């Protein structure tokens, strides 16, 4: 059987279609293991971004990079877009890598790597561009500032993406209670950030360093810092320091007037009891010191120190009390005391007899020799000894007087018994009076 020409053409066309379908099916089946791999990239504005596309299994299929606007950058190793910032890094059947230098915020977006299989396979890589914040500036600062005045310092930085973080410090201590404000720039791609520190000036903060620190991921852990040194003016503070806590007569004393202020106070002024120093020869002022020599009771009083600077003045007082000189006794030797009582009695006849009695009270001369002790104890001991000796003397004197209260003399004429009458007896008695014996009687 012979086929018509038209039927033969149809047969060949059908065979061609079958062969083409089989070839396409085999190609798709071989490309099922092929898939491009990419990674997201983050770069700081002005830096260089490297975009890499890899394929593990590739049967000589082309690779292509395109930008967010779907413009082809590179097709295999052929540059498609005229941009001097874009360079080829590596091109092979398994990898296509390019670099974009001097990256700007407008380069941010989604980049596409395409593998031209049937169908075409793609992989996305997002390029993030970080906006670097500008160096911060502190505004609202005045120098000097008076103590008690209110200060408002504002720290501001622009151009950050994402928004930067601002922190305040006084020396090394962070201040938490601050205001924070974030605004988008005109390009709507970056942010301007500001923070305000509000406080009242105090003398304790004079010389303190106030710093504003900007933290951002684009700064690589090296924050940007703006600093200002506080200069606070305040009235003087005054204090008097004495060189002696127990001034005594005859000693010297130095009163020092310590004054602090900003600006520094002028030379201090010393007064006593509201007037000038009464004795310039003994009361000498040397700078901030007042020296008083040879203290006496007339130096007692209230001494005032006054300090002045352009901001104001301040003063303080010191009450001086001069004490008596302390009594300090040296070692002593007690000399024994001697007490003597003498009594004389006379009988008014022809003879008289004087008798004396002596009461002596002595102490051991070495009893207290060389001993030292507290003043009151030594004085009390001496008084006790004197009282004891006095009492003993009085007792001995009393006993002596009591035993020798009176003495008289009687003479009895011998031979009066044999006289015949009284006249004879008297005559015999007067004649023998010269040889008469004394007879004494004692009455207690």
Strand content: 35-45%
User: How far apart lie the N and C ends?
Assistant: 207 Å
User: Biggest β-sheet: count, sense, barrel?
Assistant: 6 strands, mixed
Helix content: 10-25%
Mean pLDDT: 80
Shape: rod-shaped
Based on CA atoms alone, the radius of gyration comes out at: 64 Å
Task: List how many beta strands DSSP finds.
Answer: 28
Number of helices: 3
How would you describe what is shown here?
The protein is mainly β and 444 residues long. The protein is built from 3 helices and 28 strands. The longest helix has 29 residues. It starts with a helix and ends with a strand.
Short recap of the structure:
With 444 residues, the chain is mainly β. Helices cover 15% and strands 38% of the residues.
List the helices and strands and how they pair.
Layout: H1 5-30, E1 36-37, E2 41-44, E3 49-55, E4 63-66, E5 72-75, E6 78-79, E7 86-91, E8 95-100, E9 109-115, E10 121-130, E11 137-139, E12 145-146, E13 150-160, E14 165-170, E15 173-175, E16 179-184, E17 191-200, E18 209-215, E19 224-229, E20 232-242, E21 253-262, E22 269-272, E23 283-286, E24 289-292, E25 301-309, E26 312-320, H2 375-403, E27 406-410, H3 422-431, E28 439-443
Parallel strand pairs: 2-10, 12-20
Antiparallel strand pairs: 1-3, 3-8, 4-5, 4-9, 5-6, 7-8, 9-10, 11-13, 13-17, 14-15, 14-18, 16-17, 18-19, 20-21, 21-24, 22-25, 23-24, 25-26, 27-28
